[in-house]
Design goal:
Blueprint: H1 8-18, H2 47-71, H3 81-105, H4 114-142, H5 153-170, H6 183-201, H7 222-256
Organism: Musca domestica
Keywords: Membrane, Transmembrane, Transmembrane helix
Pfam family, one: Rost
């Protein structure tokens, strides 16, 4: 029967329907140590998780530093959404490493400091969604007309490894994913769209002297640019849903493997 709570339809769609409750906009979540632990650890502290967080932070730190040296372009490194995303990956990885380090040595420190964890949760979600959308957009729409080499280290880092590492992190962290949190990466996308328009109106050019940042976001053709922005925002919604599905997969596997070797006890 359709009302049977054990039915496949109910088990599939009821959890999704619950995500559209008003309180799901909130950045409140308990327990707070979900933001500071791995989904796969069983003990309160994990040296492996601490080492992983710092390894990820150093990985992104080296990657961003290398791309700044290689692609600085008289400061134009900072105009590209790719580099915004890359820089944000470094920011969130260092943010997470610092939080986990504090928690590792003082587990009660965050009991009365929910705001910093809310910022971390919102930031992590924005970076995750934006990184995956950037990777998809670049290889599908920009790379075919780009002069860059697909095997170039910067290309692989900023348009591939970044999103791979963020999705990996998404499958390791313990905090939840909320569908209605899609509003946060949407706001970030609109901020970049406004920046690109201001940059164009101010006479800004790309590294090759063209009067745009990306050819597909050329404000001399406002109709096309607006359409591209709308398309990118739609992609943000789609990727948010796909990443939510990965979160549900993560928790489903974790619930079945609580006592297996997949958990971290070190």
């Amino acid at each position: 029967m359709a009302n049977n709570k054990s039915s496949l339809c109910y088990r599939t769609f009821h959890p999704i329907a619950k995500e559209f409750q008003k309180e799901k906009f909130s950045l409140s979540h308990q327990p707070v140590d979900d933001f500071l632990k791995s989904q796969w650890q069983t003990s309160q502290k994990s040296y492996l998780w601490l080492l992983y967080r710092w390894g990820l932070a150093l990985c992104f730190g080296v990657g961003v530093l290398g791309s700044l040296i290689q692609q600085f372009g008289a400061g134009r490194w900072f105009i590209y959404l790719t580099d915004w995303g890359f820089l944000l990956c470094m920011y969130i990885s260092w943010f997470g490493a610092i939080l986990v380090t504090i928690y590792h040595f003082c587990p009660t420190y965050f009991d009365n400091k929910p705001k910093v964890l809310k910022v971390y949760w919102c930031s992590h979600w924005c970076v995750l969604v934006v990184a995956t959308v950037i990777t998809f957009m670049y290889w599908l729409f920009i790379f075919p007309n780009d002069n860059a080499n697909a095997s170039d280290l910067y290309n692989l880092w900023a348009h591939g490894f970044n999103s791979i590492l963020m999705v990996l992190d998404h499958m390791l962290v313990a905090f939840p994913t909320r569908l209605l949190h899609v509003v946060y990466p949407l706001i970030l996308g609109l901020v970049y769209a406004i920046f690109s328009l201001i940059y164009y109106l101010a006479g800004g050019v790309d590294v090759n002297g063209n009067p745009y940042i990306y050819e597909i976001l050329d404000w001399s053709q406002p109709g096309w640019a607006t359409l591209m922005i709308f398309g990118c925002l739609v992609l943000v919604v789609i990727f948010s849903f796909l990443l939510f599905c990965l979160y549900k997969l993560r928790t489903m596997i974790a619930n079945k493997c609580k006592n297996s070797k997949l958990t971290i006890s070190a």
